[in-house]
């Protein structure tokens, strides 16, 4: 009887442990070495080192990054190419999408008309409404018609047409925030670790990124036609340093994403002497902008960022991004906001559960014409207050004396189907 019970318990433990093991999904990463095969990419001949071709440099760096990541059991690495061949753009993006990848990293080298341009750049796919210069996009799109498959897939694509520009802008806004985070980490490493010049993180309509259903970045590791930088790109030392910077950025990106989602945090290596981060007394939100205009979730003015809390105060809507009581996450959130285009973003401290000494918070439900008693809002909620100012009706709900109470009430209201509400701070 005891043996039977032992076997049952042992079987149960094996089932639980195996379910736990298989439930730990690896972080799937697609590494794309730009160009390849008949597409040499940017290239130039030098008398001392011969021809430096983009396709060779990107493959060498990609393989180094992949080798580092493959040593970490939490990662699954997929390559679009590991040899000198040319996968079509559709092959690259289809591979990433079929693999349900968590991240797509395309590694390239840059070129310019003049050989004085130098430095690194990282591109993310997203809206680019103010910048009409499409030279970078056109240069990447030049490789579209290198094989028959791409002719069929992209046959109607014209980089100079407004329709194509609009199509490019509509893609991937869902993943912009995460892409900006990784892009910032990559460029920071190039500057702080490798002591190189960073030209920044940019949103551009690059065709190589637009079909990916995941956060994606294109890293320009340097200029092939710059005499000094090309020698660095062609050297084993330069390729190793670049690979290490990209690798460390990916590790830090994964840690930041896991920290936000509550998942397991990946570490580069055991650091027994490093003290755990101590939580701060205040919660920190990043103030993006103040405006008299109300922007709903997904509005282009919010530049693709999620986790935004608007608070109305004295007739102005203040848009706050993220919330954390860890200094490291706060700093990452500031950088993500600035990389998204909010150059004046800064952190604002909120004391948790602090009661207002004067006034209260309420939930602004609707602004506009007068609602009748059969409207969804009036039927769903009781004790809705109505005020009229300058011919406009304002409908609000509840009085809350801490921000946390107001946020909780707002989520409860939205769960009932009333969307795009605003927390309003009322002074009395």
Explain what you see.
The protein is α/β, with parallel strands linked by helices and 428 residues long. 36% of the residues lie in helices and 25% in strands. It contains twelve helices and 16 strands. It has an eight-stranded mixed β-sheet. Strands 4-1-5-8-6-7 form a six-stranded mixed β-sheet, with helices on both faces. Helix 7 crosses helix 9 (236-261). The chain starts with a helix and ends with a strand.
- Low confidence ranges: 1-23, 128-147, 163-172, 268-274
**Share of residues in strands:** 15-25%
Order of helices and strands: HEEEHEHEEHHHHEEHHEEEHEEHEEHE
Give the proportion of residues in helices.
Answer: 25-40%
Distance, first to last CA: 74 Å
Enumerate the strands of the largest sheet in spatial order, edge to edge or round the barrel: 12-9-11-10-16-13-15-14
* Main pleated sheet: 8 strands, mixed
Structural class category: alpha/beta
User: What is the β-strand count?
Assistant: 16
Shape category = elongated
What gyration radius follows from the Cα positions, in whole Å? 26 Å
Mean pLDDT: 80
Task: Characterize the quaternary organization of these chains.
Answer: single chain
Number of helices: 12
């Amino acid at each position: 009887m005891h043996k039977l019970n032992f076997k049952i318990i042992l079987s149960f433990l094996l089932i639980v442990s195996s379910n736990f093991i298989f439930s730990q999904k690896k972080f799937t990463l697609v590494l794309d070495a730009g160009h390849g095969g008949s597409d040499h990419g940017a290239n130039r001949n030098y008398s001392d080192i011969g021809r430096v071709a983009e396709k060779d440099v990107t493959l060498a760096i990609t393989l180094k990054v992949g080798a580092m990541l493959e040593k970490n059991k939490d990662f699954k690495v997929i390559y679009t190419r590991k040899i000198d061949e040319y996968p079509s753009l559709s092959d690259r993006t289809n591979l990433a999408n079929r693999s349900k990848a968590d991240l797509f990293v395309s590694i390239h080298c840059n070129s310019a008309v003049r050989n004085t341009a130098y430095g690194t750049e990282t591109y993310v796919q997203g809206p680019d409404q103010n910048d009409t210069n499409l030279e970078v996009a056109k240069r990447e799109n030049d490789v579209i018609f290198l094989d028959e498959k791409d002719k069929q897939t992209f046959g109607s694509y014209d980089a100079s047409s407004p329709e194509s520009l609009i199509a490019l802008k509509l893609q991937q806004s869902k993943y912009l925030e995460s892409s900006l985070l990784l892009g910032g980490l990559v460029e920071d490493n190039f500057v702080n670790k490798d002591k190189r010049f960073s030209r920044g993180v940019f949103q551009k309509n690059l065709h190589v990124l637009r079909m990916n259903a995941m956060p994606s970045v294109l890293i320009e590791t340097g200029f092939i036609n710059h005499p000094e930088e090309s020698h660095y790109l062609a050297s084993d030392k330069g390729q190793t340093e670049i690979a290490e910077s990209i690798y460390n950025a990916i590790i830090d990106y994964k840690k930041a994403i896991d920290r936000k989602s509550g998942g397991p945090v990946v570490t580069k290596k055991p650091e027994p002497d490093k003290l755990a981060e101590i939580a701060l007394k205040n919660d920190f939100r990043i103030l993006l902008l103040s405006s008299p205009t109300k922007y709903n979730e997904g509005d282009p003015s919010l530049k693709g960022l999620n986790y935004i809390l608007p608070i109305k105060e004295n007739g102005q809507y203040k848009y706050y991004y993220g919330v954390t009581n860890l200094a490291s996450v706060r700093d990452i959130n500031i950088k993500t906001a600035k990389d998204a285009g909010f150059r004046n973003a800064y952190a604002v401290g909120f004391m948790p559960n602090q009661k207002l000494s004067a006034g209260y918070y309420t939930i602004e439900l609707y602004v506009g014409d007068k609602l009748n008693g059969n409207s969804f809002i009036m039927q769903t909620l009781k004790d809705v207050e109505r005020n009229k100012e300058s011919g406009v009706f304002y409908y609000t709900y509840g009085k809350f004396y801490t921000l946390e109470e107001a946020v909780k009430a707002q989520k409860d209201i939205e769960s009932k189907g009333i969307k795009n509400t605003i927390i309003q701070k009322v002074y009395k």
